[in-house]
């Protein structure tokens, strides 16, 4: 009963904000979902606790890949990528993430380019969930036309 009372108090506030920001459909969908959830008694502590645990495990806002960069010498850098445990897609993007990070380092340091010396992908079979992993090595090049850059 208190949840329905709170929704009745919050509904006019959301409606007023929606009219000012022209996001009425999003607010209406959210309020409709909240009303449906309250009718199905999904605001019980068991359901809320389970949803929080699922959110903590899945963590949709965390980056898909954890990247560590190790400088091997003046020109070479090694990238080690590790995918998060529970994902919805992104299994084939390891090389794209690898090259994008190599390019960002080259551009930030003012380098002319880079060569991919080695790249390999695999699966680390840890329990309870396996991880996709990738590792690669890049050699950076300075500009021959403008050696001072």
Can you give a write-up of this model?
This protein is of the alpha+beta class and 149 residues long. The chain folds into two domains: 2-43; 65-141, Translation Initiation Factor IF3, CATH 3.30.110. Helices cover 44% and strands 26% of the residues. It contains four helices and four strands; from the N terminus they run αααββαββ. β3 (113-124) and β4 form a beta hairpin. α1 (2-21) packs antiparallel against α2.
Silhouette: elongated
By CATH reckoning, the class of the largest domain would read: Alpha Beta
Number of domains: 2
CATH architecture term of the largest domain? 2-Layer Sandwich
Ranges where pLDDT stays below 50 over 5 or more residues in a row are none
Radius of gyration: 24 Å
Number of helices: 4
Biggest beta sheet summary: 4 strands, antiparallel
Strands of the biggest beta sheet: in what spatial order?
Answer: 1-2-4-3
Overall pLDDT, averaged?
A: 75
| End-to-end Cα distance | 69 Å
Protein name: Lipoprotein
């Amino acid at each position: 009963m208190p949840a329905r009372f709170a929704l009745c108090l919050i509904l006019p506030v959301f409606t007023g904000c929606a009219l000012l920001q022209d996001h009425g459909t999003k607010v209406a969908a959210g309020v409709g979902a909240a009303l449906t959830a309250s009718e199905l008694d999904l605001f019980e502590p068991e359901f809320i606790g389970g949803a929080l645990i699922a959110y903590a495990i899945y963590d949709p806002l965390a980056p898909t890949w954890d990247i560590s960069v190790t400088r091997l010498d003046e020109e070479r850098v090694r990238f080690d990528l590790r995918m998060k445990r529970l994902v919805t897609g992104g299994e084939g993007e390891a090389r794209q993430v690898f090259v994008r990070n190599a390019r960002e380092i080259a551009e930030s340091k003012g380098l002319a380019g880079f060569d991919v010396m080695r790249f390999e992908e695999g699966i680390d079979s840890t329990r309870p969930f396996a991880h996709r992993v990738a590792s690669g090595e890049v050699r950076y090049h300075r500009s021959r036309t403008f050696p001072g850059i």
